[in-house]
Amino acid sequence: MELEEMKAVWKELSSRLDNQEKINEQLIIRMAHQRSASRLSRIIRLESAGAIVSIAATIFIITQFHKLQDFISILSGIIVTAFLLISIVIGLLIVQRASKINIISKTYSQTYIDFKHLTALLKRYKQISLIGFFVLPVAMIPLIFVIILNKTAPLDWSKYLESLVAAVIILPIVWWLILKFYKRNISKVREAIDEVKELKSKSE
Amino acid sequence: MTKEQQFIILIQENEGVIHKITSLYADSREDQKDLFQEVVVQLWTALDRFKNESKVSTWIYRIALNTAITRLRKVKKQVDNEALDLVMFNYAEPENQELDHKINALHASIAKLNELDKAIILLVLEDKSYEEISQIIGISVSNVGTRLMRIKQKLKEKMTTSYGT
Description:
heterodimer
């Protein structure tokens, strides 16, 4: 088949395609907002990874709890374990609520409700994590001394100074980066939901 | 005109082009639908950045082909659609069996080319000039000509040996 004949055959294929029923308007817009699903899956992936790490850390601390003998290390073990358990529960709830959001297959109002539930939970998580970022470094240091370094936790807090200074510098940066990640992804999902709302109100 | 209205018109007017690309770069109907959706997403995302520096069709081909080629490289498998499903087009006249056979043969032979050759021959068959093809794909005009000669040869061989056309 020469090129000219190929072109003629291809033209026939094209005209058959043109005779097909045109894609529905609503479907086009909903497809475009598939992007929001990828934003939500980033959040889901991060939280799932966080939950797995937290579960592993919790199990580790519980199995090593017998090493904690003095008041400071026992208290630090309890505080860290409590924070880990709270973050596991919230993390899994975030995964569950983010997975429920589906712009394409659900109605706008249901999507909006699901989205509101997620943002409310993220707000609560932000508050808890802010406390955690200040309390946890202090709580973890005795635990690290006893469980990982196999030493007695020093009672003299000046020995923890370097670690505390490092935590004060590094942790706010880490917290800000995580917050930025969530803010960016959630705002893209919100944009997508608002655009679908506009489309829906025009078609009704 | 709102952004959505502009976008809807753009997709509806160029739906055929996107379907042709997806049919060459994805084998199963499900994969073709997924690729169609991905192309729509990419066009929507890129719409704000489109500044009319090129023709709309050039812009659409560039994005659709880039999306398809990127996806194919990720999947890392050769498209192996032996026959185009003409029922997909809701149109298959029994008296045009010879033409159907040629359409199938051409489509299947093109589908077996590598990702870049597919893009070039698709654009040639769509009557794009060498300059446009070079803009869309990002290779030089002379390279388009050289590659096209080889592509035509490959297609002729495939169509003769596999389909007797």
